[in-house]
Specification:
- By secondary structure, this protein is of the alpha/beta class.
- The protein has a single domain, classed as Alpha-Beta Barrel (TIM Barrel).
- The chain has helices at about 5-10, 25-35, 50-55, 75-85, 100-105, 105-120, 135-150, 170-180, 195-205, 210-225; strands at about 10-15, 40-45, 60-65, 90-95, 125-130, 155, 185-190, 205-210.
- An 8-stranded parallel barrel has the order 1-2-3-4-5-6-7-8, surrounded by 8 helices.
- The longest helix has 14 residues, at about 25-35.
Length: about 230
């Protein structure tokens, strides 16, 4: 499997999600992504308007996270947060699955939560984080089916807030087998070098979530191995 630096940049959600993030940091990262040709800037919904202003006139798109990082808010709160993010310029929404509902076997509640956010996003892609480190194989399959049936565009592996936020090759393969060939999969969790990135793509991921240093490391690895793969 071969890929180019440009293709890599188009597949990365470069995130700044730490709770201490300032508007100045959002603006600085946005300027860097514009200059270096990255496609997606991922922020907490609080910073949607700042991010949208900072990327205006460029090809960079804003991904806003709602119900983040635990998903343990009422559906109405996720809907309100999504609607506000859309109004402020979000191009995509990342949400966190209702894990308590999943563990309780309340499929109807979990799927309704996803569907409500998808509706609130008004046609914008919604990625649903299922937090694979917390789930066994059966739960990963069930969560992926719920996300698919709820109308979301992507299944995403991790928020980064779990005790061991690692995107596993086997998990991405399992999700791909579950949702079929067309749905998006976002691998997020320590995908910090070129070989890890390529393994996620091989497993079936179509997007990768990370921070800027990791994105640059992947690009360095791509340059070093150009023509060798």
């Amino acid at each position: 499997m071969k890929t180019t630096a440009t293709q890599i940049k188009q597949s990365l959600d470069v995130a700044i999600l730490k709770p201490t993030t300032t508007e100045a940091e959002i603006e600085t990262l946005a300027a860097t992504l514009r200059e270096e040709g990255f496609r997606y800037l991922c922020v907490n919904s609080l910073h949607t308007a700042t991010a949208a202003r900072a990327v205006k006139g460029s090809k960079v798109e804003v991904v806003a996270c709602v119900g983040f990082p635990h998903g343990t808010v009422k559906t109405a709160a996720k809907v309100f947060e999504t609607e506000a993010a859309v109004a402020e310029g979000a191009d995509e929404i990342d949400m966190v699955l209702d894990l308590g509902g999943l563990f309780a076997g309340n499929r109807k509640r979990v799927e309704a939560d996803v569907r409500a956010v998808v509706t609130a996003a008004q046609g914008r892609p919604v990625k649903v984080i299922i937090e694979t480190p917390f789930l066994d194989m059966r739960q990963k399959i069930e969560a992926s089916k719920i996300v698919r049936d709820g109308g979301a565009a992507f299944v995403k592996t991790c928020t980064g807030a779990s005790p061991d936020p690692l995107a596993l090759y086997e998990d991405v393969r399992l999700i791909r087998r579950t949702v079929g060939p067309k749905m998006g999969i976002k691998a997020s969790g320590r995908v910090g070098n070129f070989f890890r990135y390529m393994s996620m793509l091989e497993a079936g991921a179509t997007r990768v979530g990370l921070v800027l240093d990791q994105a640059r490391e992947i690009l360095r690895g791509c340059a070093e191995h150009k023509g060798k793969l």
